[in-house]
From TrEMBL:
Location(s), subcellular: Cell membrane
Species, as recorded: Leucobacter denitrificans
SUPFAM superfamilies registered for this protein in UniProt: MetI-like
Keyword Plastid: no
Chief location of this protein within or outside the cell: membrane
Protein name: ABC transporter permease
Family: Belongs to the binding-protein-dependent transport system permease family.
Residues passing through the membrane, by range: 21-39, 109-128, 140-166, 178-200, 236-262, 282-308
Keyword Glycoprotein: no
Gene Ontology biological process terms from the UniProt entry: transmembrane transport
CDD domains, sorted: TM_PBP2
Pfam families with a match to the protein in the record: BPD_transp_1 (PF00528), BPD_transp_1_N (PF19300)
Extent of the signal sequence: none
Length: 317
């Protein structure tokens, strides 16, 4: 495939992903809007608090927030605001939603990014060193992967706090002051991701080890280190990165629990507080932001896979 043909295929793939991203974002906003409106209770009660029964106030709040409009009008008005980047004001915090959300975005991205990168490095080391090993080694690693996937995140975080914060006093149990405070939340969040990715990468490298070109390479005297890291890992990395991009959404979702367990700032705590108070603008802004991040990461991973692996380009051509 020529360079121009490759560029056309990559452009076609990017356009398809962009169209899909728009549909995903619209669906996420719509489902969230319907879900919030279906929740019991009312926004007026949350906004008014102890003044909810004072005469005339409820009508004033409904009018000022646009809640006296038909539900379809409210939906399309809010959809129009989101398209222009205006998420409105928080019903509860009395502040611009953009300021509330973006002030908490950094800690969440820091935690999710550190977990993703660390998981990829850990998975690389485990897959390269244990793939094609003895059946006993395969079983031990398989059990460890299953445990990493199945252990509840809040329980893993609590155990790490007990062992490394209260017991050994190596890392702080809560807060977000300095790199040391990031260690335990990162380990907690990466465990299920690393378990899944390790299964994919070990299986792919094990499959590659049984192919004839590996036997041929070994007969030419290539070192095992170079064979696995230079020739096998790139093949396994394509499918592993694709799965990692798909799981990025669950990583952000897991950050909600981890931020709560470790008392860290972030989008998770903002989202939980907003759901409890039915603060619709904040909830939808968090959903849009997380969905956008997932779509962007997934698109970048797909384009990297298209660029690396010619089989994907041939399927799309």
């Amino acid at each position: 495939m020529s360079l121009n043909s490759q560029s056309i295929v990559l452009l076609r793939g990017a356009l398809r992903r962009l169209a899909g991203a728009v549909v995903v974002l619209w669906a996420a906003v719509t489902v969230t809007f319907i879900g919030i409106r279906a929740m019991p209770g009312s926004v007026e009660d949350v906004v008014l608090g102890i003044h909810a029964n004072e005469p005339g106030l409820r009508e004033q709040v409904r009018s000022s927030l646009g809640l006296d409009q038909p539900i379809l009008v409210q939906y399309f008005q809010y959809l129009g605001q989101i398209i222009t980047g205006d998420f409105g004001r928080s019903f509860v915090l009395r502040a611009d939603v953009s300021d509330v959300v973006f002030s908490q975005l950094g800690p969440t991205l820091q935690l999710a990014g550190a977990s993703l990168l660390t998981a990829l490095v850990v998975v690389w080391i485990i897959a390269v060193t244990t793939s094609g090993g003895s059946p006993r080694t395969e079983r031990i690693i398989g059990i460890a992967e299953l445990l990493a996937i199945c252990i509840p995140t809040f329980w893993a975080g609590s155990l790490l706090i007990i062992w490394f914060s209260f017991g050994l006093n190596w890392f702080p149990a809560s807060g977000a002051d300095g790199p040391a405070a990031l260690v335990l939340p990162t380990i907690t969040l990466l465990l299920p991701l690393a378990g899944v990715l390790s299964q994919f990468m070990r299986e792919e490298i094990g499959r590659q080890l049984r192919l004839p070109y590996v036997v041929s390479a070994r007969s030419r005297g290539i070192s095992e280190f170079r064979l696995r890291n230079v020739h096998l890992v790139p093949h396994a990395a394509v499918s592993t990165l694709t799965v990692a991009g798909t799981l990025f959404g669950s990583l952000i979702g897991g950050a909600v629990i981890v931020e709560t367990v470790f008392g860290r700032p972030g989008l998770g705590r903002v989202a939980l507080s907003a759901v409890g108070s039915q603060d619709t603008p904040v909830i939808i802004a968090v959903v849009v932001l997380i969905t956008t991040a997932c779509v962007v990461i997934s698109t970048v991973v797909d384009l990297i896979a298209l660029w690396i692996d010619p089989r994907y380009r041939e399927e799309l051509a």
